[in-house]
Amino acid sequence: MAVSAPNDLVRYARINGTSLFSIAGHNTRSMEYLTGNHVIAETMFRHDPKALLYAPLRMLVYSDGDGNAVFSMHRPSDEFGSLGIPEVTKVGEDLDRIVVNLLRVCGVDASQEFARHSE
């Protein structure tokens, strides 16, 4: 697995929002990435095929008004947790950690943003 997914995630596709919306006059740079791991996804699919509503993960990188890169995505544990299946929620929590690690490798500390918030 390490050779094909060195940080546990694979980029399946990317959607270039910059070129897609430049036709309408927008100049915000943006790229959406569909990322995941089919082996991990199968561990949720076996409990409920609706897990594919949230897999692969959608990650968006866009520029703010100052030209800085902004990363945005829904927290996997929230998405998968919405199915109400403890085994699937646990995999979502593992994916939270995988995303935090991937961002750490990229030089971004997102551990606070992905921390569970007390209600």
Give your account of this protein's structure.
The structure is a single chain. The chain is an alpha+beta fold. It has a single domain, classed as TATA-Binding Protein. Helices cover 37% and strands 21% of the residues. It is built from 5 helices and 4 strands, in the order E-H-E-H-E-E-H-H-H. The chain has a 4-stranded antiparallel β-sheet. A hairpin with a 5-residue loop joins strand 3 and strand 4. The longest helix is centred in the C-terminal third of the chain and has 20 residues, at 86-105. It starts with 9 loop residues before the first strand and ends in a 5-residue tail after the last helix. The mean pLDDT is 90.
Tell me briefly what this model is.
With 119 residues, the protein is α+β, with helices and mostly antiparallel strands. Helices cover 37% and strands 21% of the residues.
Structural class: alpha+beta
Report the CATH C-level class. Alpha Beta
H and E string: EHEHEEHHH
Task: Please tell me the CATH architecture by its name.
Answer: 2-Layer Sandwich
**What percentage of amino acids are in beta strands?**
15-25%
Cα-atom Rg, whole angstroms? Answer: 15 Å
Main sheet? 4 strands, antiparallel
- The average pLDDT is 90
Cα distance spanning the termini: 37 Å
Could you give the order of strands across the largest sheet? 1-2-3-4
Number of extended strands: 4
User: Could you estimate the helical fraction of the residues in percent?
Assistant: 25-40%
